[in-house]
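Researcher: Predict the fold of Diguanylate cyclase domain-containing protein.
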Amino acid sequence: MKPEFSTANHLIAEMAQLAPLPVLAVDAENGSILATNILARDTLGLSAETPALRDLFDNPSLARQFLLIARNNGFVRQFEARLRLAAGQRVWVLLAARLTETTNRSLLIVTITDIHERRLIEEALRESETRHRRVLEAANEGYALFDAESGELLDVNPALCELLCYPRDELLKLKPEDVITDASLETLQEARKLWNTSPYRRFELGLRRATGEHITCEISLSAVTDSDGRITSLFALVNDITARKLNEERVLYLAFYDTLTALPNRFLFAEHIDHALKQRQRIGGRLALMFIDLDDFKRVNDNFGHDGGDVLLSTVAKRLVGCVRASDTVSRQGGDEFIVLLANIHDASDAEQVAEKILTALSEPILLPGGEVNINASIGIALCPDHAMDAPTLRRLADIAMYQAKFGGKRRYVCYSEPDDEQDAQT
Ligand SMILES: Nc1nc2c(ncn2[C@@H]2O[C@H](COP(=O)(O)OP(=O)(O)OP(=O)(O)O)[C@@H](O)[C@H]2O)c(=O)[nH]1
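Model: Structure tokens for Diguanylate cyclase domain-containing protein follow.
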């Protein structure tokens, strides 16, 4: 051996002592540990009783594998294994090795990097991911993960597949637009504009099932950010609220509409007249309130039964609607009483013309299950601003006029006039 070579060898051996990693010299054939640096001795707790690499490995068969790879390739770049320290502690490490030949044997120079903390964090992350996945797999709530930039679906859970009636692979091929109803596309665009700045939000969307059926869902959107805080993807929790919405609509309908005739009831009518009065105050003009009470309706019930009476009331409702403009309101106040609000008229004669029209429309025979019947009505008219400015007074005065029509012989209208005035009754 040249003197320079042995000096260099000596220097390298010294450097290995100073290296910030544990370094071992191992017999490549049998794995016995021939030399170590100080750090290896200290951190691995090596002693004379740890003569071979396999004694360090938690799983000795992995030690054999490691030696085999090193011998065959001449090096090992990264080999993850768990080592058993003298203190009994088990740590995850990354081994690297290089084969070197000396005169009488093949040596492996092995370095060891401690990756225990990183491994534990990775394992904890993996476990937490598995836990979350299991929760999402078992959840009744639909879940979708999608790319923040392209909107492409990245992941869905079985509940969402079931909700939208798609197999998972097919659903993952669709864009959000493919399952969102046309009416809800605007809501999606609005949400999209905001999700880079304030992604957490809750909103309702109409979704289309594979069967074509439309459902209403509540979406809770949250952002997934990368290490720079950039929003990379979004996840949506999807709840089917179709039944709840239908119920709410039904409750709302029952609160404001008459179920027999589908006309606005007295509560909705009160809102309509308030609105019309406010509008009149702003833009001027005149409006008329017509109180309509059917004549001798009780007889219809008596002769054709309550069901027959109901059919008649529905028919009357349709005929009344047919006599006015879309901007007017026809409402059923209860029993055989209806109120018509003419939102914008020039003078009393406009209201009188509509009253005539109603009397003519109602006088057409009505076919009931038990036979044909003729019905008439008495109508009282009050005008704003001529007779009153507020809804209760207008209603009261139209009611008075309607009773005048009844007492005047029925099947007529009366336009309200002050008590002293001559009554304007028409037959
Ligand atoms: N079929 C049916 N009848 C109803 C309903 N609500 C009230 N009624 C009946 O409507 C009738 C109303 O009669 P009234 O307005 O008091 O009297 P009328 O026979 O019309 O006589 P005049 O008003 O004096 O012309 C009563 O017999 C009520 O029982 C309903 O929803 N359906």
